[in-house]
Amino acid sequence: MKKTIIMLCAVTVLAVCTSVFAEAPELKQKLPTEWRHMERIEAGSLKADGETDALYKWLKDSCRNQYLKNDSAEGLLSCSVFYRESVGADEFYWQVACPETKYPFPNLPAAVIGLYYKKGNHLVFFGGCLSDFCIRVIATCTEDLGLQYRADTFQIIKGRKGAKGVVFYEHFTGLNDDMTFKAIMKGAVYGGCEARYCLLDTCITSDFKASYENAIRIRFSDFLWDEKNPLHYSLQNAFDGNPATSYVENTEDDLMKIEFQHIEEYNVTGLAIINGYAASEKLYLNNNRVADFQYNSNGKEDFIQKITLEDRKMGYQIFSDCFPNHPFAIVSGVKKIYNGDKYSDTCIAEINLLCKSNSYLFGDLYGN
Fold first, then answer.
1. Band of the pLDDT at 149, cuts 50, 70, 90?
2. Dmax of the chain from CA atoms?
3. Which residues on adjacent β-strands are paired with residue 134?
4. How far apart are CA 250 and CA 195, in angstroms?
5. Which ranges constitute the DSSP H helices of 48-195?
6. How confident is the model at residue 27 (pLDDT cuts 50, 70, 90)?
7. Where are the strands (E) in 276-326, listed by range?
8. Which residue(s) pair with 153 in the sheet?
9. Contacts of residue 166, Cβ cutoff 8 Å, sequence gap at least 6
10. pLDDT for residue 257 is more than 70
11. Beta bridge partners of 288
């Protein structure tokens, strides 16, 4: 369905402040999996001394090139704050627009203007994303689908030796015209999420551009949208290598569907899962856990295979040969759960795909 998107207004803004530590707490809600690993490399201006001069020029020139057709390129630079994130031997640079200075888009909040990956003598541009803003979605220019609240983000998938790739997440939920939440299930807001995962080995072109055409597509069922912190229970938690965070569904029947598309070239053979809300035994038992995964590796929903998970096991459960035919897509459904003692939310702390090479698509397993 063709969609025309009209930007309407901002809901909140993000204040970016100076940090001298290797973390960026001001980005905690916008980049929940990355802020602890980010170091701010400038303090309020684009002037730098010594060996960092070349880096600033490099980043500024890259910004100008990406926004060459945008008259606001210089305006973006004038209010940008840059961060460095090191993952093993790999280096990434974040450009975040700060509304405290000469912000060129007064109707939009602070934004990740650019995520760059350093590859040799080049910077690969993965794009930018806005967070905490509203849009009105109109299908085929005739049917008004109403307001959406968006909270998009990036995630760098990390391995022991370096980065595996970059995931771009689009999070959205419905709003009424008075800006109250429209998408309510079981007394709480629910949101949708779609993700594209670009692996560094396969999604960077010969002219050093990120190609989302080759990205793995990921889709889970609607998640529990926290009104104060929209990404607190969202999809990126299942791929962050941290069992203390969890993807939490918000569906009518407490069940869920999981899809991975365009995975054929990675020779996927198996699955690794940390079940439930594994931050503590209390949270684990209070919430629902997955009992059975029913799945099909031909990309269809006629589930013909099943995986049964053990309960009260808070570490990884590995199924190394459940996809012997190296599927191009996996569609799975959670059809049976272990009920929580207190809550009806079904949770998954971590999920990863095992390849024929004995490597994992979403980084090394936590604790292994």
1. confident
2. 62
3. 9, 149
4. 18
5. 53-66, 73-78
6. confident
7. 289-296, 305-308, 316-319
8. 169
9. 115, 117, 126, 154, 155, 156, 157, 197, 198, 200, 210
10. yes
11. 346
The secondary element (H helix, E strand) that includes residue 285 is helix 281-286
In sign, the C-alpha dihedral spanning 188, 24, 64, 195 is negative
Per-residue pLDDT tens over the stretch 154-190: 999 999 899 999 999 999 999 888 888 999 999 999 9
Nearby residues of 73 by Cβ (< 8 Å), 6 or more positions away: 63, 64, 67
Give the three-class secondary structure for 282.
helix
Give the angle subtended at the CA of 18 by the CAs of 12 and 23, to the nearest 5°: 85
Q: 124: which 2 tokens?
A: 């690969």
**Torsions phi, psi for 50 (to 5 deg):** 65, -140
Contacts of 230 (CB under 8 A, 6+ apart): 29, 132, 149, 151, 171, 173, 191
Please identify which residue in the block is written with the tokens 């998954």: 348
> Per-residue b/e over 173-190, b at no fewer than 16 CB within 10 Å?
bbbeeeeebbbeeeebbb
CA distances to 1, 66, 70, 126 from 123, in Å:
34, 11, 20, 9
Tokens of 283: 């949270």
CA distance 167 to 152: 11
Query: Among residues 295, 283, 289, 301, which one has the least CA distance to residue 336?
Result: 289
* CA–CA dist 363, 316 (Å, integer): 14
Half-sphere exposure of 103 (CA within 13 A, CB side): 19
Q: In the numeric block, which tokens belong to residue 10?
A: 């901002």
Neighbouring residues of 68: CB distance < 8 A, sequence distance ≥ 6: none
Kindly report the CA angle at 351 between 262 and 242, in degrees rounded to 5? 130
| Residue 209 vs residue 92, higher pLDDT | 92
d(CA 348, CA 268): 20
